[in-house]
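Incident review: delayed structure delivery

Summary: a single-chain prediction request sat in the queue longer than the usual turnaround. Root cause was a stuck worker, restarted by the on-call engineer. No data loss occurred. The affected request and its eventual output are reproduced below so the record is complete for anyone auditing the incident later.

Affected input:
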Amino acid sequence: MVKTVVVIGAFDTKATEYAFLIDLIQKRGYHVIAVNTGVVGGTDLFRIDIDADEVARAADSDIDTLRSANDRGKAVAVMSDGAAVIAKLLFRREPFDAIIGMGGSAGTNVVTAAMRALPFGISKLCISTVASGDVSPYVGTSDIVMVPSLTDIAGINSLSRLILSRAAGALAGMLETTIDKGEKRPTIAVSMFGNTTPCVDRCRAMLNRNGFEVLVFHATGAGGRTLEHLVEGGVIQGVLDITTTEWADTLCGGVFDAGEQRLDAPGRAGVPHLIAPGCIDMCNFGAPDTVPTKYKGRTFYQWNPNVTLMRTTSDENRKIGDIFARKANAAKGKTAFIIPLKGFSMLDSVSAEDEQQIFWDPTADRAFVETLKATLDPSIEVLEVDANINDPVFAQRAVEVFMSMMEPALREN
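Output delivered after worker restart:
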């Protein structure tokens, strides 16, 4: 069966480059659907399947309005929104196999908006002048492959011919790669941090032994956003949220902020969600000189030269407890909490020799627990374990509780 590739981009300003790329793709035997996002016009170098006006109308505008307004920023925003809608409509109508596009910063914004709207697993490749910088605004939580164009995308020359040819070859490699999906098992998300690694490693091993596939997400902001995105996409059937530290960063302005939607997706999707306060005792900043001056005098720990951890206060933990409770109260599915009474991280602990780690603060931890319980719907269970989060007994209990939460969903399937 012939595979289909959507080629999307500004065919007004980059028609020659797209004609070259489309020819490369078609010579490999793939069917092409060409989507024009260029506001100025089109091209007669190849067939356009969806014109720019259709893209603009998908975002409740039209191409004449955009041309007469002569507002580049507005045009990019409208065409980005329209491209995302068109991509979803195309995929719903007739699922395709891959999408590819190219551009400068504006063109990259438009084509990656379309790519981000598509499900995980559809091959996505963007050739971009900004691919060598911070591409997180363009990639988001999707699986887009970014290819640096090295020079501006302006004509076919020895360098652009090389880049475009290899990009087409890379896309073909994605399309022709057979994925051994292995045995179908329920997929579980677990959130992790360096400070909760012992706990998560034990949980993962136990879940694997019990027939679950475990995806571990590093709680660095992007990790939490990706976890939520994959839950929304139906990839994940349950969440063992050991490490919810990203909310401390959201609250305190840290660098690992996952956004205020963190903890929402499992509740909206109705999947089992067991939540622990892993590492909410800390907020993350970069090197010491990046810490805001308003936090002068707080307790800090240098995790590495580029990561500075700040201990959260009782007041901050009360706010986090309130947020967590409200998120859980809004959930449609089975949600519960499991609390380690002897600390939320490696640094929030006491050794067997009674040596207190730098973030050990039972008062601050209790502030979280008390506020959580006070705000939480009484029907939502809160289990307390007399252990540190990294003690084996905590991991054992967390997995036992989580598996009991998963049982009804597994029976239904």
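Verification: The chain has 14 helices and 14 strands.
Action items: add queue-age alerting; document worker restart procedure.
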